[in-house]
Structure formats: C-alpha cells, structure tokens
Amino acid sequence: MTALQDRTRTRAAHKAQARLNPYLVIAAGAVVVVALTYMLPPFRTYQLATVGAYLCVTAGLTVLTGLNGQLSLGHGALMATGAYTLALWQNKFNLLLPGILVAIVVTTAVGAVIGLAAARLRGPYLAGLTLAVAVVVPSITSTFDETFNSDQGLSVILNPPPDSMTVEQWQAWVCWGGALLTVLALALLTRGRFGRDMRAVRDDETAARLAGVSVARTQVLAFVVSAACAGLAGALFAVIAQSVSPGAFPLTLSLFLLMAIVIGGLGRLSGALIGAVLLVALPAVAHEIGEAAGSQRLEGNLALTFFGVVLVVVMLAAPGGLASLRIPFKKKGH
Amino acid sequence: MDRFLFLTFDGLSRGAVYAAFALALVLIWRAARIVNFAQGAMAVATAYVAYSVADATGSYWIGFLVAVVAGLLLGAGVERVVMRFVDHSSPLNGVVVALGLVLIIQGVLGMIYGNEFRPAAAPFSRDAFEIGGVALLSRYDLFVFGAVGAVVVLLTLLFTRTPTGLRMRAAAFAPDVSRLLGVPVGGMLTLGWALAAAVGSLAGMLVIPTELGLHPTAMDIVFISAFTAAVLGGLDSPIGAVLGGLIVGLLLSYISGYLGATVAPMAVLALLVVVLLSRPDGLFARSKARTA
C-alpha cells in the first residue's frame, strides 16, 4: 500500500459509494447549500461560494491523482486559463453561462496538450513538467501584456444578480451549481468502466495493458477530465473575485490544491470536499490569528507554513488522509 | 556580433549557476532516487541566513561561508528528520513531501523576513570589462566561473579519489551489499543530502544578486531552469548536468537578448517539453530509460 494510492481501500470505498445514490446525495447537497445561503451572514456565504469553486478543482484533481496516479502541480495554471478565458469573454460578450462553457472548453484543450505530454512521463518527470507549467504560465500575462494586461490583470464585467437575492447568495448558487454538477459527473464517470480503467492503469500498467486497457488513452482522458474541472473552478473564481490577475494563481495555489486532496484522502470525492473546506477555513483562521497578533507578515505566511506542516505530517503519519477516518459522505456545505 | 559575444558570455555565466544547481539535484537523485523539489526553497533559506550574517558582521565572505555551512546542516537535517521516513514505494511520495517542505520554508521565511524583495549585494562589480571595445565579462562572472569550477573539481575528486566517495557511490548503487560490507548506508545518504544542499546554497548565493534580490520564491524559476538542465543531462550524470546547465544558460541568454526577457520562462518550458518528449533519458544518457 502506497501513500498516494488507496489500493487496499478501493474495494471498500467502491462498495460504500455504490450504496449511496449520487443523485440523492447531490440533491441533498443542493438543499443544504440553498438553506445555508439564507441562514449565513454575507461573508460566510461568500466563503461558502469559495468552497464550492475549490470543490470543482479538488474533485477533478483527486480523480487524476488518487484514481489514476498522475500527480499534477499544474492545476493552478489551468485554473488561471479558465479564469482569463472567462474574463476575456465577459468583457467582449457579457454572457455568463456560455462564457463558463467556453472557459471549460479552452482549459480542456490546454489540459489535453499537457495531458498528451504527461501520459508519456512518470513520477518526478511529470511533477517537474507540471511544476514548470505552474511557474511559467502566470508569466505569460507579461509576455502578451496587451491582451492580459500584465500584473494588474483584467476586471470581469458581470450583470447584477436578480433583485431577489444578494450578490453573495447568487455567487454561492452559481459556484455550488457548478460544484455539484462536477461531483455528480465525476461520481458517475468513475464508478463505471472509465473508473475501473483508471485504477487498473494506476495499479499496474502492464497488467492493465494485457487486460486490453489503453494506458495512454486512459491517462490523457483522466487529465482532460480534471483539466475541465480546473477550468470551471477558474471561471467561478473569476466570477467571485470579479477580476483576474496572475497574482491570484501563484505556484502556491497548485501546492495548496495538492495539499487539500492529500489531506482529504486521495481518490475520494468526500476527501475533495474536506480539502476544499480546509482551503477556505485554514487561511481564515490564520488571518484571524494574524490580526490578533497585529502582524501582517504572519497572516498569509502562517497559513502557508501550516499547510506545509500538515502536508508533511499527513504524508508521513496517515497517508490515507482525513476521509479515511470515516467522516460521513453527506457532510456537505460546511 | 558584439551583442552575440556578450550574450554568449552572459549565458555561460548564468549556465554555470544552473549547472551547479542541476548538479545538486543530480547528487540527490543518484543517492536517493528523489528529485528534491525543495532545493530552491532550501537555497533561498540559506541565502537569507547568509545575508543576515553578512549585514551583522559587515563581511560578505563570512555570510558566503555561513550559506554553505547552513546548506550542509539543512540538507542533513531534512534527510534525517523528514526524508528518511518517507515511504518510497511510490516515487510521488518523496515529491509531495518535498513540496510540503517548500510551503513550510517559504512560510517561515515570509514570517521572519516579510514578502518584499530585499536587495542582495554582489561581492564584485557586475559591470563588464571591455576587451577590444566589446563588453564581455564582469568580475562577478569570473567569480561565478571560479566558484562553480571549484565545486565541480572538488566533487569529482571526492567521488573518484577518496574512500568516502567510493562508499557513497556504493551505498547508492547497491545499498544492501554495501551494508553487508560495513558501509554506513544511512550516513552516506545523509552526507549526500548535505553535500547537495550545500552546492544548492552556493548556487543560490551566486544567482540571487543577479536577479531581483532575496524573496521567499526567488528560486522558483531558477529551479525550473536547473531541473530542465538536469533532465537535459539525464538526471543521472553529473557531467550531463554541467553541460545541460551551460546549454540552458546560453539558450536563455540568447532568447532574453534577442526576443525579450519575458519570453525566457516560456522558452524554458518549451525546452523541457521537447527534451522530455524526445529524449527523456537526456542528451548524454548511456543507460536504459528509467520509469521511476
């Protein structure tokens, strides 16, 4: 049993998931989210929206890394691709839903290019390549500064939300709509043949090939699927922030995403949810500690350090992640 | 032509630093089959310590020495405290733990020193001499060549001419047999990490004054360039790493010089993709491909 691969638990997890009807889980999640948007104060609702946006990308990434065994450090850059695509689209056409779809399509195309390269690489080579993508892609905004406006980034034009709801509520609905659809799609996708193929490729490529599974095709497809999720997440972040800039997608974002899925427990969509919650909760806690200590330096860096420590400790001590501690799947919307 | 010559020497100077940094990556890869993704952050950490010491004592050279010693200690510490306990059955585990270390180091540095760029002074002038009316090399470039050359010579002597070097190679090549023959394999691994981190620190000290200055993320792009250089050389070969470093340095210098500095990062990425897809064993590989 290796840390990044939950082989021995695959069967148990599969059974547990099979018992849950994904449609029911998603419907319950939607009810919980809608209820929460009416109960929580605006700032908490905004945080809820952010959790939803993060959930899109962590769910996709946990399928790629946990079920297919490919490590990607480039998903922060893929999110940037989605966010910038949406920003450029909105500023030209101002049609949000088609814009999000275009962002997904463009990111999927970029992900396919990286995925084609990634399918031929293993271990540290793949990590190095995707790390390079994460470091280099934000700098493209300076190279083509006429389109991307360099470090200042672009603002995103959005129509005001319907009169009956606040901006935060609208954001939470949009983000969680995307997140729940993503989770549903991934849950259906990974329990069928594709999920089996991915696990087979992860566990033993030679055996998978002998069993008639196309290794390269499965790997590229897994990367493309998770890239699409990252594109959606990026577009949703652009909607929440109403602006995009390279500073919002640094290398540390990609590392945070990795941390989230490792801590949550790789290969489980419930783990992706735990990770997404942590991604919002931990910086918030660090922010409060920093404010209490009156030190601005502490604020951002405390979260960074804490993430790092947790990542190392979890990898050394509990490679199964928090989701292996039998946290019920339905804990949605916290 | 003048410009070409200038860019060539500038590229060799940059390349020498990438070579040293790539050498550090190769040292750990050979010893432990881990690509140390925390190398850049570790080098930045020692550079911060070095410049603090240099400010306190007023001497750059004491700071420089401190950087190398701090590198040795940090490398040994990382191996003893963290890396030794990583489950190596999947190559990804070491990568993830190293990335955790990156977050920790960058966070701690940010807390202590803040997230602004701090100026880092160079010990020698970076103005180029003019030879026959053409600006070619600065004193600092000569210092870089000297330092990196010394590192390469010393490491070569260590690995080929000393009993310790022989033990290190044996421990990396056949750990079980070495252990039976009385080689302290664990100790050799620690030594390998310490040496690699010291070389990385030295490379960091050389490159940071030529960039924007000290910053917790100052080495990110240098790491990518050095990783590309190491892959170009085959990850397994010290000579390959040095040649790879020089090639990457020259290429980046020409591209920044003729196409603009903002294109350089993309050029590194493009080069890395091309090398990984066409010659994943590196340009100078002799052995068969590893899938690890």
From TrEMBL, chain A:
Keywords: Cell membrane, Membrane, Transmembrane, Transmembrane helix
Record InterPro entries: ABC_transp_permease, LivM-like
CDD domains: TM_PBP1_LivM_like
Chain segments annotated as transmembrane: 20-40, 46-64, 71-89, 95-118, 125-144, 170-189, 220-241, 247-266, 273-290, 302-325
Topology versus the membrane: Multi-pass membrane protein
Superkingdom of origin: Bacteria
Protein name: Branched-chain amino acid ABC transporter permease
UniProtKB/TrEMBL annotation, chain B:
Keywords, sorted A to Z: Amino-acid transport, Cell membrane, Membrane, Transmembrane, Transmembrane helix, Transport
Pfam families recorded: BPD_transp_2
Residues spanning the signal sequence: none
Membrane topology annotation: Multi-pass membrane protein
Location(s) in or outside the cell: Cell membrane
The keyword Chaperone is assigned to this record: no
Main location: membrane
Transmembrane segments: 12-29, 36-54, 60-82, 94-114, 142-159, 180-208, 261-278
CDD domains: TM_PBP1_LivH_like (cd06582)
Family to which the UniProt record says this protein belongs: Belongs to the binding-protein-dependent transport system permease family. LivHM subfamily.
Protein name as catalogued: Branched-chain amino acid ABC transporter permease
